[in-house]
């Protein structure tokens, strides 16, 4: 490896980077022929960091840096290489060796170059690179995934008007990349502040993708080996959590930000843009909410087919607890008297998602688990109904059979429900009951 390094030091920056890429191709192609699990050794990583990302291990050596033109040429060379490499395994290994974060000084340069490469791949529709990026998004820590998502959003939704159409068309070329991109975008834009609310163009694109094909959000899950374990800190295997957050929080977040004053005394940027563009985003979130319910309804069959029903949480209980807490804080920030409609809409959507998710097996908890959490929210009839459910009372109970116990403590207080065999037999994952008194449809 030292001989290669000394040879590269005599070359110009672009030539050295091209030579490292050529070395990686030979290295991984030979490894795949000799071993089932290729290993990226330390020397190879150091070559990549030194001659592609220009982070030298030797302080006494001044590295030659590429000019902007040379960097563009290198990106074009990478684009051509990944497009022409016929072996997917080699492509994936080289992409990982180049861009997997190592926790060192080169990571910022690594992320910057990958963002430019993936952005270029979107512009010229290089599917092999998009597929490599999809795998990278699946196995990399969420902190880095949202950084890539931010680069693409800036490039195609902010800098050049109309360029979002180029990103929108990627759906037909690489649905797997789109699934992972949605997961990263919903993790980035969590509606916690005005800056973290998706633009109308980005929102419309995501909603269009999902309403056209609800199965898009399940592509990673459907293609994932049953025994696969997600790396610690990685994005979820579906964007469902982020999409549920968008639907439930959007009425309250937009209401809060439309009232938020800024330094010059005007309302927030989001409210001004909505007025200027004449865009009513409520229908988009309503369409998204309907699609989320449809996706949850599809999940039961897929979980059963994979023998994962009751064993895999696609919506984790802790995530739902966090969402309820976020909704509670938003309600506290708003004047309930001036946000009655928004609060009701948010809680209606939350109630529907919880009911359908529990019934489909995507959320592995019972009403008893959720009841004390949801009791912190304002009263909502639909949430009251979903959280209570028809509970069979023991013969000696003071209540009538079929009584719906309140999740909010009434003024006079009810005696606690005793633990009985009937209560213990209550199913952990309730199914839909024909003839229920309320339909499953998005609340408008």
From TrEMBL:
Superkingdom per UniProt: Eukaryota
InterPro entries recorded: INTS15
PANTHER family for this protein: INTEGRATOR COMPLEX SUBUNIT 15
Protein's name according to its UniProt entry: Integrator complex subunit 15
Origin species: Scleropages formosus (Asian bonytongue)
Gene: INTS15
């Amino acid at each position: 490896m030292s001989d290669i390094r000394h040879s590269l030091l005599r070359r110009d920056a672009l030539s050295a980077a091209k030579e490292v890429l050529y070395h990686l191709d030979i290295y991984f192609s030979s490894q795949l022929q000799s071993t089932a699990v290729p290993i990226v050794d330390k020397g190879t990583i150091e070559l990549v960091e030194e001659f592609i990302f220009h982070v030298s291990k030797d302080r006494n050596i001044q590295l030659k840096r590429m000019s902007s033109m040379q960097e563009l040429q290198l990106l074009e060379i990478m684009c051509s290489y990944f497009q022409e490499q016929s072996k997917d395994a080699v492509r994936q290994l080289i992409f990982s060796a180049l861009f997997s974060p190592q926790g060192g000084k080169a990571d910022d340069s690594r992320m910057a170059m990958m963002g430019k490469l993936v952005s270029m791949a979107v512009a010229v529709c290089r599917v092999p690179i998009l597929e490599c990026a999809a795998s990278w998004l699946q196995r990399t820590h969420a902190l880095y995934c949202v950084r890539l998502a931010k680069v693409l959003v800036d490039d195609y939704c902010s800098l050049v008007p109309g360029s979002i159409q180029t990103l929108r068309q990627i759906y037909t070329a690489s649905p797997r990349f789109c699934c992972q991109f949605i997961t990263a975008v919903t993790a980035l834009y969590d509606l916690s502040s005005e800056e973290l609310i998706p633009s109308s163009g980005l929102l419309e694109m995501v909603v269009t993708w999902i309403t056209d094909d609800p199965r898009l959000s399940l592509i990673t899950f459907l293609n994932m080996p049953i025994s696969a374990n997600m790396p610690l800190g990685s994005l979820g295997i579906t964007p469902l959590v982020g999409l549920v957050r968008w639907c439930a929080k959007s009425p309250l977040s937009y209401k809060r930000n439309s009232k938020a004053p800024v330094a010059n005394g005007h309302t927030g940027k989001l409210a001004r843009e909505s007025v200027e563009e004449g865009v009513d985003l409520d229908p988009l979130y309503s369409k998204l909410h309907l699609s989320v319910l449809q996706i949850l309804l599809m999940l039961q069959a897929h979980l059963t087919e994979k023998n994962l029903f009751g064993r895999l949480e696609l919506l984790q209980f802790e995530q739902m607890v966090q969402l309820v807490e976020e909704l509670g804080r938003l309600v506290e920030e708003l004047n309930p008297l001036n946000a009655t409609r928004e609060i009701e809409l948010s809680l209606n959507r939350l109630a529907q998602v919880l009911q359908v998710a529990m019934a489909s097996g995507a959320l592995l908890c019972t009403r008893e688990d959720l009841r004390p959490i949801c009791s912190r929210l304002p009263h909502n009839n639909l949430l009251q109904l979903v959280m209570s459910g028809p509970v069979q009372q023991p013969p000696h109970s003071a209540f009538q059979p079929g009584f719906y116990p309140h999740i909010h403590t009434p003024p006079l207080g009810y005696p606690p429900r005793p633990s009985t065999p009937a209560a213990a037999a209550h199913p952990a994952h309730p199914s839909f009951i024909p003839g229920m008194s309320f339909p499953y449809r998005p609340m408008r």
